[in-house]
Amino acid sequence: MDFQINKLKETVLKAKLPPELEAKVSTQLERLSLSLRSGQASSYGYYEQTTSYIEWLVNLPWTKNSQDILDIARAKTVFDKNHYGLNQIKQRILEFLSVIILQRQFQIGNGTEHNSGQFTPLHNDHKQSFRAPILCFVGLVGTGKTTMAVSMAEALNRQLVRIPFGGLASALDLRGLSRIHSEAEPGIIIKALRRVQVNNPVILLDELDRVSEDKRQEIMGVLVELLDPEQNKAFTDHYVDYPFDLSQSIFVATANNTDKIATAVMDRLEVIQMPSYTDEEKIHIGKQYLLPSAIKEAGLSPQHLKIDDAVWPVLIRPLGFDAGIRTLKRITQTIVRKTAWKILNHEGNAFTVNSANYREFVE
């Protein structure tokens, strides 16, 4: 068993944990070693618990971060590529990103300006808490709230972490469970950071208004800590039991409405109202974004499927008015799947959906 203990010690040293945490873990390993030598009946359970704990610690990105791409022109290109219309909203997000870019470039006087007016980006090891407001996209289902956050991450070259609040039943789901419990595990924040392996992702707090009613107050309390840069630089998960710096992360939130979001949380958010799409916008999005994407995902080519212009007005309103494009996306995917089936069933190799036959593709 001494061999296993020594391996754990080597693992801890290689991981380069924060000094205080490394000392804390070393003490636990010494205690475990003495316990195993004494032959206590509970030692092996303690060994499994300690091994699992160390595995989590050494796989967290304590100092790992992604390098930002600080190019506002590139960011604009990303949003224009991913989103049709919504010009005022895209402009507001680009202004938000501009603040972040300038903060990254001018930290503590380390930014340098060239004659061209361009600025040299700084590496992420020059830390400073972001002070830009936290954007909260509010709107009906399918209006593009989540995809805006995806585009923000792409524009900055950051990983995206989505934390779903829909149906969240306990604050412990966010903050983890203490290791005194046999079923202890980290919360979804720490789990997500381990998955993306960087400490500066874009963290999407999705559907803030849909948390469990009876635990709303506790969950909102954790949210206040997450959104406050003075507190999130030392976010403590109950399982990890050591502060983790989240101040380099960029938080973005979404909600269908703000009625059920605590005032203390709302004070930290800047609400951006997502409008409903017009019929004209939906048709353009369907033609230029949804259909090409669905065709590509299905392994087909544009030559396999065409949809007549006369059909699109019917597709965008199958059951009346719909604020978003989620239903249109499902219909488009259905048409593509029907096409794939017809091709494999030797009914043809190229199909055109028109006013006469569209029902056989959508039903």
Automatic annotation (TrEMBL):
A Pfam family matched by this chain, by name? AAA
The protein's name is AAA+ ATPase domain-containing protein
**Where on the tree of life does the source sit, at the highest rank?**
Bacteria
Provenance organism: Candidatus Roizmanbacteria bacterium RIFOXYA1_FULL_41_12
Domain AAA+ ATPase intervals: 131-279
User: What is a single molecular function from GO for this protein?
Assistant: ATP-dependent peptidase activity
Q: Which BP terms in the Gene Ontology apply to this protein? A: protein quality control for misfolded or incompletely synthesized proteins
